């Protein structure tokens, strides 16, 4: 996610606990969704859709923090 911001993400994950938590939550949801879609972990279509919406919300949060940090 956001490979063009790799260095900034590394810096923010080390310096900003909230950013690190949101970033990790996004990654955890991504892994959970993949397991559910592969039928490794149980989940309905509706549950997967809800998780994808939450993952997108977290991605938006991450992106806005990145933009703000880049401008600073």
Which descriptors would you attach to this protein?
72 residues, mainly alpha
Commentary on this structure:
There is one protein chain. The protein has 72 residues and is mostly helical. It has one domain. The protein is 81% helix and 0% strand. The protein has 3 helices and no strands. The longest helix is centred in the C-terminal third of the chain and has 27 residues. The two termini are 21 Å apart. The mean pLDDT is 96.
Low-confidence sequence ranges: none
Percent of residues in helices comes to over 70%
Summed over residues and divided by their number, the pLDDT gives a mean of: 96
Number of domains: 1
State the end-to-end CA separation. Answer: 21 Å
The secondary-structure element order is HHH
- Based on CA atoms alone, the radius of gyration comes out at 14 Å
Tally of helical runs: 3
Strand fraction equals under 5%
Number of strands: 0
The class by helix and strand makeup works out as: mainly alpha
The main β sheet shows up as: none
Overall spatial form: elongated
Quick structural summary:
By secondary structure, this protein is an all-alpha fold. It has helices spanning 6-15, 17-37, 45-71.
Map the helices and strands.
Elements: H1 6-15, H2 17-37, H3 45-71
Helix pairs in contact: 1-2, 2-3
